[in-house]
Amino acid sequence: MSKDTAAPAITFEKCTVIVLDVAGTTSSNSFIKDTLSPYVTKQGEEFLKEKWEDETVKAAVKQLKDDISDAEGAFKLLKELTEKEDSNEGLKTLQGLICKKGYESGDLKGHVFADVPAALESWSKARKVAIYSTGSVESQKQLFSHTVEGDLSKHISKYFDQSTGSKTESSSYEKVAKELETKAEEVLFITDSAEEGKAAKTAGMHVALVKREGNESLPEDAAKEFTVISSFKEISFENPSKRKNIEESAPAEVRSSKSRRHK
Q: Where is this region: Disordered (predicted)?
């Protein structure tokens, strides 16, 4: 296959819902690590002091650690856990709230890979598209509402975060399917994590693992267990042989008309 030849499309004809991971799948890991995390540590202390009496902030801080009594102590732990890339649910809530200000002011623009906007637009015309990330629902909404490619949130039907459950537990994906009012076997989950892929597959979902620039290498046996892609362009929901049969069964005058138009 030549360098300029597109990879053949991989068909998921039975899937009516697409669930997407974020970091390493729709957006680069470096955006999270090199843009969002530094923003959180830079703005976090001022935010916590300003919003210390806010009930949502109080609840999130309690999830960080039960005995934190002041904004300074909360920020110290927020900074430490952010730098460790911890997935504490309270931490993710606070990060989302802090970044919301940055998105709304224009200081932050969410990164998405080049193939994402067209895929979301195309897929959402006939299917539900949902997001499932360790980042809070609020942070997901802000990212997709303020991307470098504009507002993509109009293509997304539902958001899920860790309140649904761990992304490495099959029961979480069962809950996702139930919330989306569909059968697990009608869902395609796209992620860069083989561990998440295994959990989704156990729940009955179809899975595609995506290899993106900057991601960690997938396990050697991943290609044996999963469909592996490098771009959303490789995903198709229409069976090409079925389309060919439909075209061949069309009246001769229709086929002739199409042929003339394409000359």
A: 240-263
